Amino acid sequence: MSTPITMPEAGESVVSGVLSAWIKSDGDWCERDDIVAEVETDKITVEILAPASGVLKQTVGEGDEIEIGAAIGEIDESAEKP
Q: Global pTM?
């Protein structure tokens, strides 16, 4: 089972942000609430947390613009912890 990682709300008037950096690499094991990426908006930098424990699959690249609520990747919860 995969759980999507989505761009969270980042303020009242913010509608999108730019993925500035992946903190975890594609295929890395992540624990729930690990920081997996950073997104910059015109107002703040947002840390995106893993919604579950499992293996990270990135679906958006660094420098891509992301709308609020859009998926940037997913966590494969069925993967075994190394």
A: 0.89
